[in-house]
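Morning run. Coffee first, then this:
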Amino acid sequence: MKKLFVAVVAIAALCACGGGEKKSLEYRGLSMGMSFKTFCDSLTARGFAVDSAKTDSDFTTVSMYNPNLNFRLMLAQNNDKLVAIQENYLISTNDSTRKMWQKMHDDFEKQLGAWPNMLKDGQDHRIAKFEADGGFITLTLENTYKPTLNVLYQLK
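And here it is:
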């Protein structure tokens, strides 16, 4: 009986120690916990290229694009660690941004299994902030003179 009790305590201790690992937020299947250079290399392998005209000289923020997609990426780093990624969508009409925002909102709800914190909920200005494992995803719609749709991935 004493050996069984010791075995149970040992298993509980192992589970407690193993549970301390922090899960990182994922961006389209890529872990945001990897180094900044490795993350950029992974995006390059997926067809993205660095836009040197919109990237700062010390690579604190890097702009990337893929000619086959309708958004650009802005990546921010601090000490070779990825801090945030923002997708900026290139859409021309208010109706298409509203529909796209709603579809992305519904997809994130299903994917994350959580309701967002609606920071702003109007017809032409909506902000939804989702909490995910290891970070936050903020979906922003602004339909003004030039419609904009952004998705911001931030690590905790």
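The longest strand covers residues 81-89. Good start to the day.
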